[in-house]
Amino acid sequence: MKRVILLVLAVTFMACGGSKTIRDSRKVIKGNWTLSDISYSKSGQYNVTLLDDASKSCFEGSTWQFIPNNNTGMYSINKYACEAGDRHFIFTIDEIDETTGLYDFLLKPTDEKGKSQTNKGFRLSLTALSDSQMQWQQTVIVDNQPFTISMNFKKI
């Protein structure tokens, strides 16, 4: 009987925590990153406002910090002709398919103290993550066709 109770407790504790893949991803994402470049799935000139905040040219070169133990972070835009400053957010990584390595990544803007400023959040796909590089993708519909925005980060 004691073994059955211990087994049930062990399974319960394992079920409550995130998967090993997500835990490993949180360890890798921790730290400081630079958003090195943003690309689109189709060629052409597009006027895209990312995260309801700024243009592609403002975001390229921005610095990002992720603190996974409390799921918070901050990015800083410091380019001329852009609204410079720090932006705070909370994030979550949700596993989609462990075999493909694709995850849902939810980023939600907050104030400096971590309080949500709006009910808005941005769902992105975390499509690549290594010790030195990370890629997010967001697919939207433009002219009834899928249009993918890829954001490529480098760890600093």
UniProtKB/TrEMBL annotation:
Protein name stated in the entry: Lipocalin family protein
